[in-house]
């Protein structure tokens, strides 16, 4: 906010407030919203914003007539009136005095400011006392507590404390310590008569002042406004309210309306039921009541002010009466003895009071022996320049900054009670850590500050947790606050706070946070200057500045944390500034992996569960359980489980239980009362543990963790009175993951022993959490899903049932529509597992079929397996189609087609191969297979949807057509069909196979497609060749068959030539083409025609050279392989090359070449006799030479295969160069 110098005439706090607590928004409703007062030549920035006020509307004070005797009581003295405000009256007019826990009362009301924005929370009297230390000889005794970056200051009344110690013995250790080190002859100091006299006169004066105009004004803090002689003395003990050390009840009230304060500036704190993953519908009860009377934690100041003094932000409580109206909108009223001049202490006192309350003027009433003399008006900025009361405002500013730096640098441990002490008349200020001193005694809970500090730590953490939009960066601070809170409390006395704190600690770790947030650059570590974390305590306590050292000075005290050796140091500008900036700390622990994060969460959950369990009284009714004894994990094999049939029964029971959950059945073995804090907290903790185990299981894919997650969830179901949809969704997710893990285990059967060992392992932490769960439920609700089976079929069935159960849960409420992504994932998994089971049964059927040798008929077992497999595929297809997953539906249709082909293969006769025919059953199943493949293609629509699946389905369809055609060709059903019909069907099936065989697209499957297409053309050519040989008559049909045979032979050759690994097939096709030419030659009569055919046949022979070169290359590689790599004899470089087949084909080739050459020589010789042709002569000569060499080569029986091939290649070269016939 902009600040400026106050001009003359800018007065007071205009605008009346309503009676009762309220927050004054936008600061003061005044002319001067903030001010930089120009005082004595030094500018000091001061700004005050009233956060809360219970004062009634301000009215003018009554100006007393001269000679009024203040020793006489006014008519309204000590009379109770609503206009006196909330204060009750006593003989001194008011009971208001600083309580030991006054700062805590304010902190509870303004929890937002604590730990973050505000540096100091305290009574204005304590602030003034600190700032007057260098000027005053009076003693100072204050308790200091750190909460985050905020310091809470409270008066520690030693006299009151030791009076209490004499009665109860609570503070004996401190009394002994005090007498030993500070004041050996301590005795209670009594108030002087003068003190009581001054108080009585002040009380009567204020009552006179509010009586003048009939509109009585409240006097909230008369007892505080003391004369100069008493302003620095110890306060009365009458109103002090020290709680007994153990007054906090172990079971606190749960009624939110039981708060002792009528109206609160802030909403009460709740156990965090809304943070992170906690179901939003569950509002948990108030943990404790704000402002417990027994604790003295009430905020009983007339006004709470946010005061910014230079760069120091303070939340201050003030009871100073402020008057206003008429010429003076806001003034403070003071009574002075005219015989006693105003000294520096009184001046500072008045100046600070007016600054804190933003009052621009002071009205001073002077009296002599109680007789009013005169009134005097003094401006606030003129107070530092008054005669006998001259002080520098800049020095006050330096004192404030130095004291704050000193305290912040040394009060580093949250939860510790520090004692700032200066003895009367001494210049030395000492700071002690009372908590550390107290721990040296037997019972650390003797410190009465323990409980209020713990509650405040808890409330500040709660408040930060509620601010979801910004709490991520404060997680380190929240964690430190909660850990310190738990450290302070006795587990047996405060189980509820401890359970709640541990739950919040577990909530700080986001179980599902993405990986990037686990890095060291996480925003969790970018904290502002806040309190030290536990790890830094040792460093924080080290001696960082010579000013705090405990040297050889006799005044040094080795028990003190730090010492200011002379109060004069506080006036030196920035004396302690060097360590005023507190290091960034409270860094949130960086979890480098998911397991570490989940384990941290589970450790906090376990502590929370222990707290809840310890508070439930019916322990004697529970079965005795030793946490050190592992709970046996049931291990069943398929024989005891009863297989998939037993699963069906367990599933039915499970679904019945889920249905009853909707009605809210409650069953707890420990006797927890529904709605109690234990019940609500245990529900939250169990839910958190189930989620942590789920995340662990998801990361490690282990059945052990998902079993623990489901056991936790089962217990949650037993305790829950109203099952939330969010929790049902969790269960669906858990079961889905359980299905995934069971499927993974089924697919990794080789590691079964390792999986079993891992499944049976338990950490001590897991055992203790399980014991806590077993207090409420037997945890067997999901045993059917989490047991480790040794049987593959059982594991697949369990996996399927898990997905089915997950799907059923989504049907219970509107979860399916609310979580469409999860629903789709469940159905995908159901489709996938049904495919897996279908393939499992299909493979079993195929295995049975391969074992069946003798029997021709199909066994019942095979048929049963077909039915099971078909049923699974059908359901899986339905699952995928219901979520429009065309690709996976196509894959399952493809598998169904494969099943049909297995059925077809099972029906082929196992009898005599020569009598076997293609059966109608085979045809039926192959046609069904074709239908399923075509459906798969229709499901995909186009190749663009999923090219790989499209190509796969096309290949399978081509294979089916090809197999069907091959079987019909090889085992023609001539007993049922005519030869022509069979040939037609074979031709159609082959052409369809060819249509779905993509030879052009470049892919890994391209060579296979080319081989398939070449084989189809070869078979078709062979079929037409055969028809031509066997056919008589119908010349047109013969010609057609001749053309088709020639066409298919040439296409087969072209395709085989593209392949490098099919030389034998290429050779065979070429030989068949030669045979085809020979057959044609037999029907020719003219020599010219025969010569032409012979020339074509020899040309085909020449073109086989490529095939022989490929064969030679493979033989050479095969010959060299053992020499170069004897360690791998099993490696076959050419699995497609058969030596026997090569020899057979070579022999045929040699004989056919010999025959063709002989026929060529004969025909050319006979032609030569009739005509003379030079070209034919050359051909004849060449053919004779080649024929001669061939005869010699074939006659040599000692030639190796490689040598024979070399000879042939050489001869074919000569034949190619010399021409092969006379065209």
Automatic annotation (TrEMBL):
Annotated Acidic residues bias: 527-544
Superkingdom per UniProt: Eukaryota
Transmembrane segments: none
Classification via InterPro entries: EDRF1_N, EDRF1_TPR
Compositional bias annotation for Polar residues: 223-238
Biased composition (Low complexity): 250-260
GO biological process: positive regulation of DNA-templated transcription
Domain EDRF1 N-terminal, chain residue ranges per copy: 43-557
Residues annotated as domain EDRF1 TPR repeats region: 826-1216
Disordered: region residues: 217-265, 514-558, 618-642
Pfam families in the cross-refs: EDRF1_N (PF23788), TPR_EDRF1 (PF23723)
PANTHER family from the UniProt entry: ERYTHROID DIFFERENTIATION-RELATED FACTOR 1
Name the record gives this protein: Erythroid differentiation regulatory factor 1
Organism: Panthera tigris altaica (Siberian tiger)
